[in-house]
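Record format v2
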Amino acid sequence: MTSPWVKRLLLFPATAWMIVMLALPLLVVVVFSFGERGPAGGYVPAFTFDQYLNLPARLAAFRNTLVLAPVGTLLCLLAAYPLAYFLAVKVDPRWRTLLLVLIIVPFWTSILIRTYAWIFILGGQGIPRLLEFVGIEGVRLINTRFAVLTGIVYGYLPLMIFPIYVSLEKLDKRLLEAAADLGSSPAWAFRNITLPLSIPGIATGCMLVFILLMGEFLIPALLGGGKVFFVGNALVDLFLQSRNWAYGSAVAATLVIVMLVTVGLYMKLMRRAGAQRDDVSLF
Amino acid sequence: MQSNGASAVPVLTFRGVSKRFGDVVAARNLDLDVDEGEFLSFLGPSGCGKTTSLRMIAGFEQPSEGDVYLMGERVNGVPAYRRPVNMVFQHYALFPHLDVADNVSYGLRQRRPRPDADAIARRVEAMLEKVRLAGYARRKIWELSGGQQQRVALARALINEPALLLLDEPLAALDRKLRREMQIELQNLQRDLGITFVLVTHDQEEALSMSDRVCIMRDGAIVQIGSPRELYDRPLNRYVADFVGKSNFFAGTLVETGRERVIVSLAGTLRVPAVGGPSVAGMARGQGISLSVRPEQMVLSRDPRSLPADSAVKLEATVRNRIFLGEHTEYLLHETRLGEFLALAPRQTEISEPAFDTGESIHVSWSANAALVLSNE
Ligand SMILES: Nc1ncnc2c1ncn2[C@@H]1O[C@H](COP(=O)(O)OP(=O)(O)OP(=O)(O)O)[C@@H](O)[C@H]1O
Ligand SMILES: [Mg+2]
């Protein structure tokens, strides 16, 4: 019914947006990554692989990102699932909206300010000080992986809660009665019915958090204090501090490739799990 | 039905069972025994407490008062997953992430100790054959038609060989023809397997055609329990007679009460003999009653002399409307004192006497045995 011309016209704004906002900058990054740093910083056109050969200098950033992003995602999932389950299944529907709004409330303040607050909580005058009172001395929390992970779970929890909540909320409660009728205790009914049917929510939440974490720089900058840093921090450093645009571009392009590969692997894994879900999900 | 003898323990017993949801009384003081191998239906209008009663048997609800027994054992407080009963849910509640075979085998796989995989596979196959779904084992649930889903739900429950199978309006979502087919299939399955069935429905035809006994409910209470025949021939009150088949109800008063026969007065002037029925026992003369006469009990004729000599009453009525129903012809008649009522004439009589026309004046009678006195309840 809709003529191809109308379709093309309707697609135009989105296509134009993608080209201008995504493809062009990416192209610029790729071109820059084969260039050289100018004498006063910035970029000088060239065609050299030097920048890529220099990548091992930033290995620590990649390692941190590739370890802490998945671990942070997993911790978020572990913290979010019980909460989402409680909200979707256990809470009286009258309270549900209020509680959901309470989850969003932190977003009304900048993540910068909220993460700053954690500097004080985890810093010398915060939790370590309290521990001293009960006789545990010499605990250092700030500028550790623990601090960065704490900040990650704190900041990304709502992003994980919502997709899981949605998938649990639309779960037909009669299926649980059917499971009980067929001999499943509540724990088995959760294992056999609730959990497999909430996998789409889990997959969405994990994907969302993981992708955002791969590009994270604020939380490690504040809570990692230069000791625990992500690729994002390396980029800030290269582009804004040392103004080595060519090298920064090589790091950025590599990050994009790494991300595409991991996300691709993850999707393949999920699809395979989905195809076999009948066997995987039971018992 | 009672082949196990009088000593057999009923599969299900309700003793004074009530269920309240806040102010709503969903079940009121229910007393009920269901024997092994029996097919019992709960019949009643929407909201009368049929589902609630079923859910108390399954263990999804606990009674507010009274006791539920399964095979002689009190099961109050026993959760659903520990009861030896299975349920076919109204909207089937099939597991969408499992295929047909995994849905059907679910109950077996939840057993501890768990039967080995080969035994499970064999039983699933046999069960799917029984519900005519052989070859559908690896189908996804959403690929099935309504009738096929219905049969998966049935197989999923029956494979566990429950002591009691509960069915909550299992056929409500099917179209008329398919429903009729499934009714017959259900009856055959029940007879083959010898499993006790308790079915909930608000379709009187379904209840009467399938069950050994029907339990008629109103406002959470049981009004009458009996075989379809008993309910049809000897309804306890007007409510039951109205629910079980069509009937004419004439308002009247009790004039004379005897042991078998009673005399009632209709419209103040017409005195007719009738059958007392169980509800007359506690009634006094002069009490208002309903006289029930089934449409098919009416005898119609053009010639008053051809009406049976022992008729309880002979009337003259005008034909208001006529509907051909194939085997029968239904007439809407009008009599000056009684008003409008229905009569059903079998095709047979039309051979000796052509069908009556609208506007025609004809003679109507019924026998004293066909007229039943009912309380107005
Ligand atoms: N969980 C509940 N909370 C409150 N009231 C309930 C609950 N379940 C049932 N009721 C009420 O109890 C009464 C009986 O309900 P029930 O579902 O047993 O009726 P039903 O005979 O199955 O009706 P239908 O034919 O419409 O399914 C209704 O008035 C209903 O509103
Ligand atoms: Mg119901």
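Chain A is about 75% helix and 0% strand.
Residues 277-283 of chain A have pLDDT under 50 and may be disordered.
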